[in-house]
Amino acid sequence: MARTELTPQDKEYKKIISSRLNDLLSRSGRKQIDITRSVGIPASTLTGYFKGTRLPSPKNVEKLAEYFNVEKSDIDPRFGRDHKEDDEKPLTRNQKLIAYSIDPDISDEERQAIIEMVQAAKKFRRRI
User: Fold this and answer.
1) Residue 94: exposure state from Cβ atoms within 10 A (0-12, 13-18, ≥19)
2) Of 33, 34, 79, 90, whose CA is between 20 and 30 Å from 103?
């Protein structure tokens, strides 16, 4: 099986994933062998992820996210928007109109809560 050369971005992903996994493992108080036993990822494969020498498959990222009870994007930046750039974008005109037209008598705080719900819905939709 021929190996393909990793892009500079993939090399960076390996470092990020390694750092995040090591942090999650440290905070959990568990060991790599616990993950292997629980989710079935071979120890040698898992070691590659933790050392930053291998990129995990999407299926294994999902297993690891479930194990640590985090979002896939909390482990692997290839899932979702890691940089939060969309969260900082202002709402579209239509989104603002919806938020402000729900009830003209609501307070500014209530309007802000509605806007935040619209933003949360945008985030949720991206994860699907």
Assistant:
1) exposed
2) 90
